[in-house]
Amino acid sequence: MARPRKRDTFHHGDARAAAVEAALALLAADGRDALTLRAVAARIGVNHRALYRHFASLDVLKVEVATVGFDRLATALEKLQAPDSRTIVRAYARFAFDEPHLYDLIFSLPLRKYYATADGLGSAFRRVTAVSLAAVGPSKDGEREVFRLWGMTHGLIGLYRAGTWRARSDRQAVEFIASLV
To answer: pLDDT averaged over the chain?
Structure first.
């Protein structure tokens, strides 16, 4: 009887978690366009086809990575002492400048599609919303005010990063953006 041939592959362990961490590292180093299943698989030492056991597509992986991003943003906002509109805007802008590629990824997804989901991206996004609503104070137009703040901040971040307006530093840009609230 012939012996079974020894496998050239190995069991990775928690490939899903390793893939998300590798995707975050790729994103931070090389930007959104560098994020591919092949690149992630190479980084964790598995065949790219193995990732399909954990992620139906690259978009599913991107949603997992975006969930981490929204968790990080929510945590940063939740740590604020007595937040108000200005401190929320400041923390939001700081996050965008500290993690620009992750920021770009999370805001490139159809967020409305995921908002109602019970866990994952929906849960993390609702945490960001809840902290922001609490910061603007109770009012019948709280959601509109949060949307206005996010829109203004997001737009100014985009203009600054595109070079449309300049500041001496990202820190100064954050302060300018927050001063407009």
So the answer is: 88
